[in-house]
Every structure is written in C-alpha cells, then in structure tokens.
Design brief:
Pfam families: Mito_carr. GO terms for molecular function: metal ion binding. This is Mitochondrial substrate carrier family protein B. The structure is a single chain. With 336 residues, the chain is mostly helical. It is built from twelve helices and two strands, in the order ααααααααααββαα. It has a two-stranded antiparallel ribbon.
Amino acid sequence: MSNSAEESSSQPQAQQQQQAVVSTRPGIGAICKSLVAGGVAGGLSRTAVAPLERLKILMQVQGNEKVYRGVWQGLVHMTRTEGLRGLLKGNLTNCVRIIPNSAVKFLTYEQLSREMSDHYRATRGSGELTPALRLLAGACAGIIAMSATYPLDMVRGRLTVQEGRNQQYRGIVHAARVIIAEEGARALYKGWLPSVIGVIPYVGLNFAVYESLKAGLQKQYGLRDERELSIAARLGCGAAAGSMGQTVAYPFDVARRRLQVSGWQGARDLHSHGGNVVAYTGMVDCFARTVREEGMQALFKGLWPNYLKVVPSIAIAFVTYEQMKEALGVEFRISE
C-alpha cells in the first residue's frame, strides 16, 4: 500500500518536473523576435566597423608587396584611391550576409543551451551550464550559421577585395553569376573548411567567455539578474570575449580569405607572386605556402586592425541583441 502511494506521489512530481522543463521553451513569437534582434545586432555591429573590416581583408590577401602597411596608412590609402565610399565598399554585401548569420547564430545558441540546461535540470536538478557546455553550444551555433550563409561571405570577400581600377563585379547577384559561370558552383564554398574550423573556437569562445564573465560579475556583486549589469560592464565582457576568440581563430580567417581569391585574376594587384596569381589546392597547401613564402607572421596579417574592429563589433553585437530583445519584450535571455 505504501509502495503504491509512493509511486502515485512520484508520478505527479515527475510530470511537474517534465512540464517545468517543457515550459521554458519559447513560442513562435519569441523565436521571431529573437531572430529580428539577432539580425539588427549583426547589421549594426558590422556597419560600425566596416572600414576596418575591409582593411583587414585587404591586408590578409596582399602578397609580399605591401600596399597596406598599417591601420592609418591603409584607411588613408583607401580614401585617396576610392573616396569615402571605398571605406564602406562591400558593407552592403556584408550586412546581407551578417544579418541572417547573426540571427541564426544567436537563436541556435539559445536553443542549444536551453536544451542542454533543460536536460541537466531534469536529470541532475541544476540547469546551470558550465563554460565547456557554453563553448560547445557556441561552436555548434557558429558552424550552422556559417554553413548556411557561406556563399554570401564568399561573394562579399570578392567584392571587398576588388579596387577602383580593377572592377570585375557590379554587385552581389552579378558576382555570384560570374563566379558560378567561370569557376563553377563549388567555388562559392572556397575556403569553407578553414572557416568552419576557425568558427569553432571563435564563436564558441565568444559565447562562453561572454556568458561566463557576466555570470562571474553577477556572483561577485550579488546581482539577482544579468540586466542589473551596466551596459559598460556588458560591453567590457563582449570586448574581452571577442579579443580572445579572434586571436585563436585568426590564422583560419586568413586562410579563408586567401582561398576565396585563389586563382582569381581580379586579385592580381594584391595577391600574386612574380606577377602570377596565386592558386591553392586546399587549406593545407594554403597554410604551407603562406608560411614558406611569407613567414609565420603572414598568418596574422591584419590582426591589429582586426582587434580594433572585433573589440567594438562583438561588444556592440551582444549588447544590442540583449537590448533589442528587452525592447521587443522577449521573455527569455541567453544566460537565463
């Protein structure tokens, strides 16, 4: 009799626990609002640092002849040769790519971390994620978002590299058509492998470091809610996360850009050796030839302007995303 009573009492408890786990999942409205917030965050953060983004790419793909030697010199050179519009060249394409990329990335991270948290809450009683689990969720989110929007990144890279005297593509659609016609549809995924490998530590560390730093600050100052953290504190967490992730993943970003312009005649002025356009057979060949011909430091070309870009970009993206969701009335947050 007592056993049946215990079983009957444990069943409602299990059902309540299961309902509690299920109830944390957002509805369609919250998901749509989260996508909008992620898209706005991505577009705003990238537009704010568009000149530095273009300078980084130009420095990454140039060969031994240094056209762009530093941040200030590079920005001045772009302005003199192409005008103020040159500072924002490729930004529209970048926004077309980064808006869906950012939306998918933030939403995927939240859903993966939520599923993990619900699982541990149901099995272990605590739904708090460890830094390692946050890293895993961020890495998976980065891979999914990168793969879904990679052709746009490829086209954006080509549009960004071409200069005023060397115009081959007239826009996003035209560039995609020319690339497919001349190089085949697979060319839209040139550099995909190093991109995916690089995005694992980059996006993974971004989310893991950002969330862990915020959680640490909450505990240190006895805050009950992450929204009690000041915007300046969250910007600082985002800046630290972006810097750490970018440092680890940067060589893969260089390889991605070089593979994207591999064999392309439009990159002759920047990425050539002895007047011949460089063509790589794959990621390993790209790394090996770059180090052999230009030294190990070539894998970090453009890193300094990229720091200047990444620190405000990642910080703006995280804070804008959270502020947008709060303004839209979304009922769940990343670190909930």
